[in-house]
Amino acid sequence: MDKPAAHWFVLNHIKHTNAKASTPQAEVNRFNAINNDRLELFAPTFVRMVEHNGRSVCKSEPLTFHYVFVRGTSDDVKQLCSMPNGFSFVLNHSGESKYVTVSDKNMADFKAIARAYSNSLPCFSPDDITLEDGDLVEVVYGDFPGLTGTYIPKKGGKTGNIYIAVSHDLASVVYNIRAEYVRVLEFAKGSKRAYDQIEAFIPKLFKALRLYAADEPIPAPILSPLVIFCRRMSAVRIDNPKLDAKLQALLMCATHILGDTDSHTIAATRFARRQNAITSPWLQALLLLLQAVTTHTPALLRDGLALLSPLTPTSSTHRLLLAEYTHHMKLSPI
Length: 334
Fold this sequence. Notes:
Elements: E1 7-13, H1 24-33, E2 40-42, E3 45-52, E4 55-62, E5 67-72, H2 74-81, E6 87-89, E7 101-102, H3 104-118, E8 136-139, E9 148-152, E10 161-167, E11 172-178, E12 182-186, H4 193-213, H5 220-233, H6 241-258, H7 261-274, H8 281-294, H9 299-308, H10 316-331
Antiparallel strand pairs: 1-5, 1-6, 1-7, 2-5, 3-4, 8-9, 8-12, 9-10, 10-11
Helix pairs in contact: 4-5, 4-6, 4-10, 5-6, 6-7, 6-8, 8-9, 8-10, 9-10
C-alpha cells in the first residue's frame, strides 16, 4: 500500500493568551518526539535592531506574521492542529483542495527568498567588526549611508562606536559612527589581516554549509557571520591573486546560502578573473567542496578527496577541511 503523500501546508500559529510562551518549532518538536519525526517546520524569522534601555539589542520576529509552513501528510498535520498548541489550517476558498498548500518547488524558492531577506538585516555585534588604524570604510546603515572615510582608533572606547575621518578640500571632518554600520573597502597599507579574517571565516561558513546541505533552517547566530563577512569583504581590494580568488570563492558560497543573487553574480565574475591563479591542492579541494554542496553535486566530493588523499595536513585549516569532507561524504555517499 502506498504511503500517503506529504505536502507543505500553510498554517496559522497564534499562541493562546493563557498558554505558556512556546515557539512553533518547540510545538513541532514535541509532536515529533512521540510520532517518529513525521513533520517538518519552516517558520522564518528576521532580526532587527531596537533600542532598549539606551542600548541597541537584537529582536527576533516572524517573517510571515502568524503564518508558518509544515510539511507532512494530511492526517499528521490534522493531528497537529487538533492539539492545544495554536496551530490551525488556512482554508482554501479558491481551489480544489480544502486547505492551502505549497509545492516543494515553490517552497524551495521561498526559502531562498527568506535567506535573502535575512541578508538585509543590520544585526551585528561590534565584536565582529575588527578594524585597524587607516582602514578605508564605508557607512552602509544609520544616519550617514554612503559616507566613506578612514578609521581612527578610539582609545578606551567600549561603546561600539568608531571614529571616521572624511577628508574634504580644505579639512577633515570626524564622524562618530556605530561600528556595525560600516564595511571595509580597503585595509590599511601594510596590514596582513585580510588573510587572517578570511581564514577565520571558513569555520563559520562550514557551520552554515552543513545546515544548508541538510536543508535545515539556518538560525540567525549562524547566518549573521555570513552577512557580516559579505558586507565587509565584498568591496575589499586584495593585490594577491590567489588570496583574492579564495575570497571571491568564499563570497560566492556565502551569498548563495543567503540567497543574494546579485552579490553572488559579482563574486562569480571576480572569481572567474582570478581562478587561474589557484594552484594549491588544498585550495582547489576547498573550492570543490563549496561547489559540491551548493550545487548538490556529490561527485565533486570524490574529486576533492582525490586531491587531498596524497597530502599530509600541516595546519588546523587543513584538518578542518578534511573533517568537513568526511561529514559531507556521510551525507552524500558516492
